[in-house]
Amino acid sequence: MKKIIFFGGPPTVGKSNFARKVSQKYNIPWMPTDLIREWMTKIVREEDYPDLFLDFKYTAESFWTKFNIEEAMQQELQRDKNVFKGIKSFIEENFYWDCYVMEGISIHPSMVDELKKINNAEFLFFNLIETDPKRIRETIYERGLWGPAKTYKDWVKEKEIMYVEQFNQWYLDECKKYNLNYSMIGANYEKAFKEISNSINIFLK
To answer: What is the mean pLDDT of the chain?
Structure first.
């Protein structure tokens, strides 16, 4: 039975950091869903999955000039539905890893039940919610969201901050809708990781 640990949540919430720490602590592989999306752009036709190729068509400035926050979210959600096909296929076809961690924005609360139907796989899901607006702002201005922060203008970063805040609220509502547990991160990053580690210890026994 494969054991798979998932970290889902909005952008900038810390999914990659949590997954990296879990991978190092338990010495297990780590698969970002962004990498699966990148693979998909190399093997699928753009006319069949146009939402997977949006990043190649726009700069940060041109994208946020053309689309508002609601439109950007809808495009993100549609893209994630298509990336989910690749995620599911990866889990079903990966016979090499008995235990690993996956993380990414492309894993939504509504997708959890579908993953649980996969044979010979056991899952542990962590849904992360950011509660600290200051951390969102700092992450976007220091790291960036569209790309490295220094490569695009600050007015775009302000749009991204609003986008991430709205995405957090949507993700929280989805967790409640599907009756899933979630972790409120905020300033309690280390406390959250300790609680997550305790759950993983039980899961991996």
So the answer is: 94
Q: Residue 64 has what DSSP assignment?
A: H
Task: Give, for 128, the enclosing helix (H) or strand (E).
Answer: strand 121-129
Give the model's pLDDT for residue 94.
87
Identify which of 46, 14, 38, 39 has the alpha carbon closest to the alpha carbon of residue 130. 14
Burial 87-112 (b: 16+ CB within 10 A, else e): bbeebeeeeeeebbbbbbbbbbbebb
CA gap 92, 134 in Å, rounded: 39
pTM over 0.70: yes
Residue 192, pLDDT score: 87
DSSP 8-state code for residue 166: H
Judged against a pLDDT cut of 80, whether residue 84 lies above it is answered with: yes
Q: Give CATH superfamily name and number for 2-198.
A: P-loop containing nucleotide triphosphate hydrolases (3.40.50.300)
Indicate the domain borders of the chain.
2-198
Tokens of 88: 């599911």
3-state percent breakdown (helix, strand, coil) of the chain, nearest 5:
60, 15, 25
- Say whether pLDDT at 189 is over 90: no
Q: Sign of dihedral through CA atoms 28, 108, 131, 135?
A: positive
